[in-house]
From TrEMBL:
This is Serine/threonine-protein phosphatase 6 regulatory ankyrin repeat subunit B. InterPro entries: Ankyrin_rpt, Ankyrin_rpt-contain_sf. The lineage of its organism: Eukaryota, Metazoa, Chordata, Craniata, Vertebrata. PANTHER family: ANK_REP_REGION DOMAIN-CONTAINING PROTEIN-RELATED, PALMITOYLTRANSFERASE HIP14. ANK repeats lie at residues 5-37, 38-70, 71-103, 165-197, 200-232, 233-265, 267-299, 300-332, 333-365, 366-387, 402-424, 469-501, 502-524, 572-604. Keywords: ANK repeat, Coiled coil, Repeat. The keyword Coiled coil applies.
Length: 624
């Protein structure tokens, strides 16, 4: 009968150090090298469990100490991984190969260097009552790892062997914070610490710094010359320590002269940037003590202050402002820290910037001020405060590069509270800027309440204002199929048949875009004029049919009886029947024919006529 992972009773007895049980099971004739689901024999189990008596018993019974599991690991790998010194000693003494590699290229020495002290921490937890026990357990584990490592080194284990990722024993000891192991390696193999031939993407220094092992880091710093070596992304050990918030590692690296201004290869960020991203203020403070410039920029032109504000790290923002970081510095897109604070909604960060008299009319690359951002994001309180400051400025230009004002942005995004704040100022109760007005912006996104606010606060006449293409808000609502907005505009006397510069009415706009709801409303409720034509002499029926919108075409056709409309021709001499037939609109064709559409109508291309093509004179002669 098997247990978990198909482990046999002998596996379990060996794992749990029950030597008497092992003897009884062996006497029953059990095949000693029988593997479990992972290819582990009972000798693997004994090595993992750390019982020397079981190991000796199994070996004396013929267990193969070179047998590998499915990952290529021998019992010696298991003993080393668990820091079982006496098991390692027994296996090596009886001939186990200290340089045998598993499927990842790792030797028992790698596993000894990587024995996990943090596992004890996870078991004991971080409570105060366990602190002393935790410390003792870690110290004991550290000594055991060093003892195992030393024994393996004394028995010809090669610390320079690299696994398949290029990591050697030093990398593993650094990554897992084994200070004593590193000291041993430093004593015996000093030249390994520079690892000039390593193919690993990260150095031992990077691994120790990233994982916060400051004691291991200090050992490495005693022998390494280059503190600013970079990983595959161009990050230094200081960058990684700052990013992870390991203040003791940051302090150790700085004290040895690591550069605080070196930039990575990808984002071109410095350790200063790395520390603020996650709000590690203690690390930032250490870095600022030696940094010459708190406004160093990354590849996007962003300063540490911009990132601190964007991520809402209040303490970091406060510290940077204390160190006189520039509040008005702009990135490559022209955005300042204030733009970012308003965009991300971090109230305390924004307030700190305002207290530093930051420029509130600074414009980004698209000409947008922080007021535009506040209006677009719905921050009415900030908008009110910023507006009071802005209107007191002599040069108060509140149009972005496309002529859009904060009122445009608030209307477009449906922020009624911001619209109310803006309309309190007489300045905004007259539309100016881009002729695609705030009312256009509101209705195209179906913000009916915003549209109602604008009409009520300004004047009902704005329902017929036109943009630079002659389109009214009614065109915009029809274009987007927002029936409620159409109703609102028409209730305030919007001109249902207003034509834009291309001669298109709102109905034509809706028909061309296949908006059934808008077409139905404009045709049946608003009674839009179906006889109107655009500059190409297309009626709304032509346009609906030309885009294949059969339901819209049928709605319009249902209201048409006049033969002049049924057979109306556009500039290309095409009737609705031409267009419907060409686009395969069967129901429209049938309805047109039922209403008397002319099948012999000829457009400007004879081949596209509705009827049969007339025979040429030569064809007649051939028939004769």
């Amino acid at each position: 009968r098997c247990g978990i992972h198909n482990m046999f009773p002998l596996h379990l007895a060996a794992l749990n150090a029950h030597s008497d049980c092992c003897r009884k099971l062996l006497s029953s004739g059990f095949e000693i090298d029988t593997p479990d689901s992972f290819g582990r024999t009972c000798l693997h189990a004994a090595a993992a469990g750390g019982n020397v008596e079981c190991i000796k018993l199994l070996q004396s019974s013929g267990a193969d100490f070179n047998k590998k599991d499915k990952c290529g690991r021998t019992p010696l790998h298991y003993a080393a991984a668990n820091c079982h010194f006496h098991c390692i000693e027994t296996l090596v003494t009886t001939g186990a190969n200290t340089n045998e590699t598993d499927d990842w290229g790792r030797t028992p020495l790698h596993y000894a260097a990587a024995s996990d002290m943090d596992r004890k921490k996870n078991i004991l937890g971080n409570s105060h009552e366990n602190a002393e026990e935790l410390e003792r357990a870690c110290e004991m584990k550290e000594k055991e790892a060093a003892l195992c490592l030393e024994f393996l080194l004394q028995n010809d284990a090669n610390p320079s062997i690299q696994d398949k990722e290029g990591y050697n024993t030093v990398h593993y000891a650094a990554a897992y914070g084994h200070r004593q192991c590193l000291e041993l390696l430093l004593e015996k193999t000093n030249n390994m610490f520079e690892e000039s031939d390593s193919t690993a993407t990260k150095s031992p220094l990077h691994l120790a710094a990233y994982n916060g092992h400051h004691q291991a880091l200090e050992v490495l710093l005693q022998s390494l010359v280059g503190l600013d070596i970079k990983d595959e992304k161009g990050r230094t050990a200081l960058d990684l320590a700052a990013f992870k918030g390991h203040a003791e590692c940051v302090e150790a690296l700085i004290s040895q002269g690591a550069s605080v201004t070196v930039k990575d290869n990808v984002t071109k960020r410095t350790p200063l940037h790395a520390s603020v991203i996650n709000g590690h203020t203690p690390c930032l403070r250490l870095l600022l003590e030696v940094a010459d410039n708190p406004d160093v920029t990354d590849a996007k032109g962003q300063t540490p202050l911009m990132l601190a504000v964007a991520y809402g790290h209040i303490d970091a923002v406060s510290l940077l402002l204390e160190k006189e970081a520039s509040v008005d510095a702009a990135d490559l897109l022209g955005c300042t820290a204030l733009h970012r604070g308003i965009m991300t909604g971090h109230e305390e960060c924004v307030q700190m910037l305002l207290e530093k008299e930051v420029s509130i009319l600074c414009k980004d690359a698209r000409g947008r001020t922080p007021l535009h951002f506040a209006a677009a994001r719905g921050h009415a309180t900030w908008l009110s405060e910023l507006l009071q400051i802005a209107l007191s400025e002599e040069d108060c230009s509140l149009k972005d590069n496309q002529g859009y004002t904060p009122l445009h942005w608030a209307s477009y995004n449906g922020h009624e509270n911001c619209i109310e704040v803006l309309l309190e100022q007489k300045f905004f109760r007259t539309f100016y800027g881009n002729s695609f007005s705030p009312l256009h912006c509101a209705v195209i996104n179906d913000h009916e309440n915003c549209a109602s606010l604008l009409i009520g606060a300004i004047d009902a006449s704005i329902v017929n204002c036109k943009d630079d293409k002659g389109r009214t808000p009614l065109h915009a609502a029809a274009f987007a199929d927002h029936v409620e907005c159409l109703q609102l505009l028409l209730s305030h006397s919007a001109q249902v048949n207003a034509a834009d510069d291309a001669g298109k009415t709102p109905l034509m706009m809706a028909a061309q875009n296949g908006h059934i709801g808008a077409v139905d409303f404009l045709v049946n409720i608003a009674k839009a004029d179906l006889t109107l034509k655009d500059k190409e002499l297309n009626t709304s029926l032509h346009l609906a049919s030309s885009k294949g919108h059969e339901k819209c075409a049928l709605l319009i056709l249902d209201r048409i009886q006049e033969q002049s409309l049924i057979n109306a021709k556009n500039n290309a001499l095409q009737t609705p029947l031409h267009i419907a037939a060409r686009n395969g609109l069967k129901m429209v064709v049938e309805e047109l024919l039922a209403k008397g559409a002319c099948v012999l109508a000829v457009d400007e291309n004879v081949s596209r006529s509705n009827g049969p093509r007339p025979s040429s004179a030569t064809d007649v002669q051939k028939e004769e």
